[in-house]
Every structure is written in structure tokens, then in C-alpha cells.
From TrEMBL:
GO MF entries: nucleotide binding
Gene3D superfamilies linked: Dihydrodipicolinate Reductase, domain 2, NAD(P)-binding Rossmann-like Domain
Coiled coil (residue ranges): none
Protein source organism: uncultured haloarchaeon
UniProt protein name: Probable oxidoreductase
GFO/IDH/MocA-like oxidoreductase domain: residues covered: 163-235
InterPro entries membership: Gfo/Idh/MocA-like_OxRdtase_N (IPR000683), Gfo/Idh/MocA_Oxidoreductases (IPR051450), GFO_IDH_MocA-like_dom (IPR055170), NAD(P)-bd_dom_sf (IPR036291)
Residues covered by the Gfo/Idh/MocA-like oxidoreductase N-terminal domain: 12-125
Top-rank taxon, per record: Archaea
Length: 327
């Protein structure tokens, strides 16, 4: 843990500068009070390209961890545990991209070791920092939830990744749902149209989570849909709220009181729905996420998405995968 004064710059590094990691480097390079000390990647040419773009250095992993207060770990999931443990041993506060780990026992070990050494772990569930979701939290603050539906769909990836559609896409919505619902998950069911295949959870999966407070949450995740969709709908006792992640848009639907009205001498029943579009202060979620991480490191506070929460998401994701494979 590296608590620093506002006047003292925080030194940062990025481990893994591929498709997502390059953006971590970009954002750190622009955050006030942050010094991007260096980057590391197994692909030295790639690391050199990103370092040149952001006027920083390519460094060996051990050298980088020796010089920074904090680091983003943006490597394939199977390497999260190994790299995160190295950072913890160096006393470096870390943001680990989602999912936290691929093995629950490794996640528990990371939490134990980080706690012993006073190291902060934040998990990169970026949708928590989407302004539309932050607006949603305010809208439902005093509402009684009934259900949540999420749809995270897109075409096949143009690159091979080891994460399933659940651990690649659905985990975003699992985390958001956990942040919205007060109860605990008491049951999980899931299915896939490809259930008979060994790779059933790779392409398309639906899951339903039942919470102890009565809320039902339904998720759909797909990497085989030819239209990119990122949507969430919340139903409460008094309204329906629709969220579009991509353009950070929120709509609130309310029914007005029904009434009987006269129309040309006839009495008719009328019920209207009003639509409200609250203001959303659109910002880049990654900027919000990394600024929050830097602020947490400065103050020594609790991250918005802790390792404990990240591990809970992993546990639920793996339970969903097991449910699919058992059908």
C-alpha cells in the first residue's frame, strides 16, 4: 500500500499492453499526478511500440515492479495469479483485469497474501464505472427490485482467447447485478443451445440467479450474434429502467394513475406511461476506473471492486458453467 500526498506523483506501470492493456497505458499517461514509469509485455516489439507512443520505458517485469507504486495487470487470465503474486511480493498495489483468476483457490490465496502485506487489489470490472450504471444506482436507491435482465451480445472474436463467453462477457453483468441487489445469491440455473458440445459455454449462455431478497436476475451472453448489444433492464415496483451501456443512455418508464375519461360522450379507460431520460455525464469508463484506483492507492482506502467481490463473481461464473455442462 502506497499512501501518498496529492502533491507527490504516483508511479504506475502496465503489465501486458495488448488490446486492452494499451488503453491502460494511454489513460495513465494522461491522468494528473500519475507518472507512467514503464510497461512490460512478452512481445517486446509490442511493448516498444506502446512505450514510444506514451514516452515511457520498456522494462523487465521485476525491474518494473521494483519501481512502481501501482500496476495494472492486463495479461491473459491464466497468468493473473502468477503476475499478481509477484506484484504482491514487491508490495505493489494492483488492478487485475477481470476475471480475477481462473481458479478459486488461487483467488483466495491472492486475497490472503495481499491482506498480510497490506497490498490493495482492485478488479477490473469496468462497467461499475460506466456513468449510465452510476446513474442507475441513484435512480433505484429507494426502489424495491423485482428483476434484472441483461443482454451482452456480439459477433465472434477475431482473435482466440481462453475465456468462455461467461468469463469473458457475462462476468461484467454478474458484477453489476451484485452491486445492485441487496440479497445474496441462493440459486443458479443456466443453459446453452450448444449444451451437448464440450465447448458449450464458449459461444452462447443464458443464466438465471435467484437472490434471497426475491430479486430474479437473468443474463444472456453471446459471442455468436451479428449485432453488438450491451443492455440492462431493471424492473421495480414502480418503474422500469432501461440502460444502454454503449451510448451511456438511461430511460425510466412510469405508469401514471389510471383514469376513466369522457370521449364524445363515451366513458373510456385510460392508462398512460411517462418516460424520463435523466442526464448522464458521459465519460470514458476506463478513465473513471483508473482514477478511482489511483485515488484508492493514495488514500489507502477500499477499492470500489475489491478482490473479495471479484472472487465472488468468479465463483458464480464457474457455477454457471458447471450448470451448462451438467444439462
Amino acid at each position: 500500500m502506497h499512501m501518498t500526498s496529492e502533491a507527490e506523483p504516483v508511479t504506475a506501470g502496465v503489465v501486458g499492453v495488448g488490446e486492452m492493456g494499451q488503453h491502460h497505458a494511454r489513460v495513465y499517461d494522461t491522468l494528473p499526478g500519475v507518472d507512467l514509469v514503464g510497461v512490460y509485455d512478452d512481445d517486446t516489439d509490442r511493448a516498444t511500440e506502446i512505450a514510444k507512443t506514451h514516452r515511457t520505458s520498456v522494462m523487465a517485469l521485476e525491474s518494473l515492479l521494483d519501481r512502481v507504486d501501482l500496476a495494472s495487470i492486463v495479461v491473459p487470465t491464466q497468468y493473473h495469479y502468477e503476475v499478481a503474486m509477484q506484484a504482491i511480493e514487491h508490495g505493489v498495489d494492483i488492478l487485475v483485469e477481470k476475471p480475477l483468476v481462473s481458479d478459486q483457490r488461487q483467488g483466495a490465496d491472492l486475497i490472503e497474501q495481499a491482506t498480510e502485506r497490506g497490498v490493495i487489489i482492485q478488479v477490473g470490472h469496468i462497467e461499475r464505472f460506466n456513468p449510465a450504471i452510476q446513474t442507475l444506482h441513484r435512480v433505484i436507491e429507494d426502489e424495491e427490485l423485482i428483476g434484472i435482465e441483461t443482454r451482452r451480445l456480439g459477433p465472434p472474436r477475431d482473435r482466440m482467447i481462453d475465456d468462455t463467453v461467461v468469463t469473458d462477457l457475462m462476468v461484467h453483468d454478474i458484477d453489476v447485478a451484485l452491486s445492485l441487489v441487496d440479497g445474496e445469491v441462493e440459486s443458479v440455473s443456466a443453459m446453452s443451445p450448444y449444451a451437448s458440445r464440450p465447448d458449450a459455454v464458449n459461444d452462447y449462455t443464458t443464466a438465471t440467479l435467484q437472490f434471497t431478497d426475491g430479486t430474479t436476475v437473468s443474463h444472456i451472453a453471446s459471442r455468436t450474434t451479428q449485432k453488438t448489444t450491451r443492455e440492462l433492464t431493471v424492473t421495480t415496483r414502480t418503474k422500469v429502467i432501461e440502460v444502454r451501456y454503449l451510448d451511456q443512455h438511461v430511460e425510466i418508464y412510469r405508469k401514471s394513475d389510471p383514469a376513466y375519461v369522457q370521449d364524445d360522450g363515451a366513458v373510456r379507460y385510460r392508462e398512460q406511461t411517462t418516460v424520463e431520460v435523466p442526464f448522464v455525464d458521459t465519460e470514458e469508463p476506463l478513465v473513471n476506473e483508473l482514477q478511482s484506483f489511483v485515488d484508492t492507492v493514495r488514500t489507502g482506502g477500499e477499492p470500489v471492486v475489491s478482490a473479495t467481490t471479484g472472487l465472488t463473481v468468479v465463483e458464480l461464473a464457474q457455477q454457471i458453467e458447471q450448470e451448462v455442462l451438467a444439462t
